[in-house]
Design brief:
Elements lengths: L1 H7 L15 E6 L13 H18 L2 H7 L3 E11 L8 E11 L4 E9 L2 E13 L5 E2 L1 H5 L13 H17 L12
Antiparallel strand pairs: 1-3, 2-5, 3-4, 4-5, 5-6
């Protein structure tokens, strides 16, 4: 994975023509270390490849350099993935990545694993950017960086619903605090 990360961080488009919102492909090959006992790519490796493909995306759009200059970095807050077809040893595939929208806290990437035009897996990943102190950076601040942005007018409805369901569940899972039990804060 280390070699994949290094390659992903090198922008492929030297002319800066890639825009935030464009669909960009990063190419990978299934390696022996990617396989599980059934001889297809293990489900956890898909998530690691998604990370590398997002870094490649941010590098190609110029976003990575601008984020790092400010000391900002991305963290995954939620993701969902659907597997359709296995990837096997030696298969060359592309991960097609696009930043598909934002809400008040997160940016959302859609990422698809393709062999040719055949889809093997699809994921949506919610990312939050943090500053050097660990505080959240608002998505509007990220989009205001000196990069060319061409996002859809709105986040897909199901993605917003999914994100809200995760937030609701996270809030329900938090233990009650002293102030919520009527005790002084």
């Amino acid at each position: 994975m280390t070699v994949r990360w290094i390659i992903a961080m090198r922008p492929l488009r030297a002319d800066g023509s890639a825009r935030v919102g464009d669909r960009l492909d990063a190419t990978f090959r299934v390696l022996p270390s990617d396989l599980d006992l059934l001889m297809h790519m293990t489900n956890g490796r898909y998530l690691s490849i998604l990370d590398a493909a997002r870094i490649a995306y941010m590098s190609e759009t110029g976003l990575w350099r601008r984020l790092r200059t400010r000391g900002w970095h991305p963290v995954v807050v939620a993701q969902t993935i659907s597997y359709r077809r296995p990837l096997t040893l030696g298969t060359r595939y592309q991960v097609r990545t696009a930043l598909i929208g934002v809400d008040d806290r997160n940016v959302y990437f859609e990422q698809e694993f393709h062999v040719g035009e055949r889809t093997h897996a699809t994921a949506v990943v919610a990312i939050r950017y943090l500053d050097r102190t660990g505080e959240s950076v608002l998505p509007d601040q990220v989009l205001a960086l000196d990069v060319d942005v061409a996002l859809p007018d709105s986040l897909p409805t199901w993605v917003g619903d999914w994100s809200e369901a995760i937030r609701t569940q996270a809030a329900a899972d938090r233990p009650a605090t002293a102030s919520s039990q009527g005790e002084p804060a």
